[in-house]
Amino acid sequence: MDCIFCKIVEGSIPSSKVYENDSVVAFHDIQPAAPVHILIIPKKHIATMNDVAPEDHGLIGDIFAAARHIAQELGIAEDGYRLVNNVNSHGGQVVYHLHVHLLGGKKLGPLPA
Ligand code: 5GP
Ligand code: ZN
């Protein structure tokens, strides 16, 4: 499968990993949009949030638990941060392997419309 994030999971493409467990991997975004910009992905290939099946619901919880853990580790939990999931064309999704952006490290602006 020609998926860049699956290759990051396999390790055949390098990434700057900050967290990993049995189900998820988190790594720095290659083009950070904020002082902290981390991508959290399931190891399982799921293209978009639209493709999440009931048996994957635990994985979604794992992604959010990882986000909470990473924010604590980086010391940004109290000041706050933002979790973003882009879906398909109108959502601005570019990489079709489910991922949640963890953004923080400064006071973020309002969400774009
Ligand atoms: P999307 O628009 O699909 O929600 O976001 C995809 C994100 O993946 C973008 O922020 C982009 O900078 C990041 N990205 C794309 N290719 C790579 C890569 O090869 N390595 C890393 N670390 N991030 C990537
Ligand atoms: Zn994939």
UniProtKB/TrEMBL annotation:
HIT domain ranges (all copies): 4-113
Domain of life, per lineage: Bacteria
Classification via SUPFAM superfamilies: HIT-like
Motif Histidine triad motif per record, residues: 97-101
PROSITE patterns listed in its UniProt record: HIT_1, HIT_2
InterPro entries with a match to the protein in the record: Histidine_triad_CS, Histidine_triad_HIT, HIT-like, HIT-like_sf
Name assigned to this protein: Histidine triad nucleotide-binding protein
